[in-house]
Amino acid sequence: MLNPTSETKTTAAADAAPTASSRAHASGPGDSAATLLALLDEGLALWPEYRAQLSSHLPMALDALQQLGASSQRLREFQRHYALRLRPVPEHARDAHRPECMGRIEDYPQWFAHYRAALAARGRDGLLRAELPVLMPGVSAVAFHGLIRTGHALRHGHQGELAAALAYWASRYQPLPAPTDMRPMTLTDWLAALRALPGAEAMPQRGLIAERMADWGLRADWRALAGRLPDAELPALARGAAALYAATASFTVLHLITASAALRALQPWLDGEPGSARQFIHAAAAALMASGAVQATAALPAGDEAVLPDWPRLAADAIAQHDDHVIKLVAACRAHAAADPAPVWQAAAARALQPKTPQAP
């Protein structure tokens, strides 16, 4: 695990950002990668939430910034600014035994100790193949943030951060009631059926996304639809979420885009586990209804590629942001676009970078 005490001489980035953001590219990728690992080391001492069940985005945003090309200086600046809201982990558990129950945030230190020991004993691949099928039924936990944090941890290969991500997922594990009908529908028909569910405006308007998702899970009519989108529609669902975000700037839909990117990153360890895609789709149905955005529009514009900013410009603008969700969204959209080229990813990233107006839930 790298923990450098000084940086090497900086160099200009190959695809320099516009002048206003040039300071974000003041060091080479090797420098910022080493800085990222050092900052992740420091972050292991911090609690994974702040205030009332709000997930710490520090490790995820740092990874997204480095992925987009941020310098070591920018990573440290972001860390100093963000870490002020976080408190230390009260204690590092010495007991590495697996906790008896999932979904108890107070067990986070023990889950962390357990997964750190398991990584050392079994290796990354063995642990992920064993644990991801166990965790996926609770993928809706804290609005997908266990999944999202795990996806970021995989990219940079920091073992401690991977243990922390899995520990957070396990300690906030939140399964939804099982779907009651699995007959397949097309994405268009599925979204139309969700949009037609009555009484959406009368649902409790809770502050947390995960709470609103759980409320929808209690509805029998929702459970009859949630499982009806086939696994093969996952890429189209992700593109649809990007188009919906471009149209609405829904904060909840934003999480579907970043969660879909994380699921794509985890797919090599989920091959042969067909239930995992269904579990994600099930949670996505809850998030779509919790957002209110799926009821708000039936037209999902894909965006005009000719007038959209290119990825170097979008990355540079995201690096200059202090909004962790915007940073992560732009990085996720660029990752999606690399695997599934379509202008809708640029449209979603560009919408996130627009001057802020009040967002939908």
Can you offer a commentary on this structure?
By secondary structure, the protein is mainly alpha-helical. It folds into 2 domains: 30-175, no CATH class; 187-352, no CATH class. The protein has helices at 29-43, 58-68, 72-83, 108-135, 145-156, 159-171, 187-195, 209-217, 220-226, 234-248, 251-266, 274-291, 293-296, 311-319, 324-339, 343-352, and strands at residues 49-50, 54-55. A hairpin with a 3-residue loop joins strand 1 and strand 2 (54-55). Helix 1 runs antiparallel to helix 2 and helix 2 packs across helix 15. The chain is globular, with a radius of gyration of 20 Å. Mean pLDDT is 89; it is low at 1-26.
The count of DSSP E runs of length 2 or more, i.e. the number of strands, is 2
Radius of gyration: 20 Å
Assign a percent range to the helix content.
55-70%
* Molecular shape: globular
Main β-sheet, in a few words? Answer: 2 strands, antiparallel
Number of helices: 16
Could you tell me the strand content as a percent range? under 5%
Q: Kindly report the spatial arrangement of strands forming the biggest sheet.
A: 1-2
Average pLDDT metric: 89
Order of helices and strands: HEEHHHHHHHHHHHHHHH
Secondary-structure content class: mainly alpha
| Unreliable residue stretches | 1-26
The count of domains is: 2
C-alpha end-to-end distance: 39 Å
